[in-house]
Amino acid sequence: MGQKAPEDVVTKLNGIQDYKGTFQKVFGRPPNYEDMAKAIAAYERTQVTFDTPFDRFTAGDGKALDASARRGWTVFNGKARCMTCHAVNPTSPMFTDNLFHNIGVSAHKSNFVELARKGLALVEKGNTKQIDELALQTDLSELGRFLVSKQTADVGAFKTPGLRNILLTHPYFHDGSQDTLSDDRPLQQRRRAEPVS
After folding, report:
1. Domain membership of residue 34 as a residue range
2. C-alpha 142: how far from its chain's center?
3. How many other C-beta atoms can be found within 10 angstroms of the C-beta atom of residue 147?
4. d(CA 92, CA 21)
5. Is the sign of the CA dihedral 101, 103, 108, 111 positive or negative?
6. Does the model's pTM come out above 0.85?
7. pLDDT category, 1, cuts 50, 70, 90?
């Protein structure tokens, strides 16, 4: 919704007649932030399936994946090293280690070294309110987890997203810089290369 504060979200929800009626019907009260979080969580649970060909394959059905998909799984676990961050197993089925990593995405868009220096200087001043505001309103958001942890090892680190239903969640990366999974050029670079019609 692009709102800056929980109160703004609730105001927006209360301004949409369909939401007002649905919240009243489901929760017995007008829209509020806590119920909105419950509604989003309930919706998100409907978006994940654990009965895919991949799930059947890992459960022992060797025929659930075709030869091409099995080769992809070998690359995922081997030379591509995807499993390093996108871990998947029966107790962690979402293809994420839930940790923060810097894979260099932020470096494509800006003078990242200068941005990191600016962020480090702000952190040293210790003005948490100013850091929070700048992280939301400027390109400092590209510094990722660092703005929360204040640890230099977290500069440019973002949480590993899960890969379930990945084809439905484009654009990709924290900044939306990849429109597809197959094109490894940054989105801005591809747009510059496209002919103008």
Report:
1. 6-46
2. 13
3. 21
4. 37
5. positive
6. no
7. low
